[in-house]
Amino acid sequence: MRLGRMTNPSLLAREFADTGRMDSQPIIDMHTHMGPFYGTYLPEASLETMIETMDREHIELILSAPHSALFDPVGGNREIRAAMAQYPDRVLGYYVVNPHYDHDLERDLAEFDSVGGYIGFKVLPDYHKYPLTGERYRRIYEFANERGLLLLSHTWGHSPYNPPQMIAELSREYGNMTFLLGHSAPGETDYAIGLAKAQPNVYLELCDTGRLSGMIGKMVREAGAEKVLFGTDFPWYDPHYMLGSVLFSGIGDEEIRHIVYYNAKRLLGR
Q: What residues pair up with 154 in beta bridges, in sequence order?
């Protein structure tokens, strides 16, 4: 059924409203997880179900840090390695570092370059109760900086563990790394936007940001569409939830295309 009275001038939004997906524009999701999570039920968390959702919603590629890697020091990063091996064209991975366990870090770093699909690191300081600028992370920062890798960090405004000010400090010290502000530091998003505008190696990431009315438009106006990345926390949320926030944010179609796809392509060198 076509919608006849939609006032949004975006042709991509019109396409989505008419067909339920964007056939003309694939998507890359820069912030996803995978697998079961303690204390809750995620019905679409298995790898196979996620691939089905990706096919249905025209998601070309996801970058993922499975829950097992975030919270299971025994399982470590095995799940993402298996997923990347099974779907090398659909799944890329963040190597997750829990600063309270070594995760066989030195062994894994020695193998890092030979494991197809790793694009950088994921850290979760608020949950691990360890500061982003702590000494236990230094080894991976030096490793990532040498190789020009990505770092996706959970960020939250006024946090003692991962405020955007810590990203500012690190982005100046490690200029060859690319820093993705996971969630774009809610509560201090204005600071995060200013940082992304000022620092070439810092990007805003949209996961959980769509609920903040007017925020996507503000990011685009002040930092530029080229500094905003599409991320969703999938499988916690259906990616279409965040896509709707982008499509109906009032920005232009070229800006939407940069956010949902081309910025990621550029960062990944694909």
A: 182
CB-based burial of residue 60 (10 Å sphere; 0-12 exposed, 13-18 middle, 19+ buried)?
middle
DSSP 50-104: HHHHHHHHTEEEEEE--HHHHH-TTTTTHHHHHHHHH-TTTEEEEEE--TTS-TT
Phi, psi of 228 (to 5 degrees): -120, 130
204 membership: H or E segment, kind and range: strand 202-205
Please count the other Cβ atoms lying within 10 Å of the Cβ belonging to residue 266. Answer: 11
pLDDT digits (tens, 9 = 90+) for 197-253: 999 999 999 998 988 999 999 999 999 999 999 999 999 999 999 999 999 999 999
Buried b (16+ CB within 10 A) or exposed e, 161-196: bbbbbbbbebbeebeebbbbbbbbbbebbebbbebb
| Residues 159, 131 contacting (CB under 8 angstroms) | no
The answer to whether the CB of 136 falls within 8 A of the CB of 166 is: no
pLDDT digits (tens, 9 = 90+) for 56-101: 999 999 999 999 999 887 788 999 999 999 999 999 999 999 999 8
For helices 215-223 and 189-198, the axis angle rounded to 10 degrees is 30
Residues facing residue 258 across a β-bridge: none
Going edge to edge, which strands form the sheet with 202-205? 27-32, 59-64, 91-96, 118-123, 150-154, 178-182, 202-205, 228-229
Q: Are 219 and 203 in contact (CB under 8 A)?
A: no
Give kind and range of the element (H or E) at residue 150: strand 150-154
The tokens 């040498």 sit on which residue? 146
Asked if 27 and 38 touch (Cβ cutoff 8 Å), the reply is no
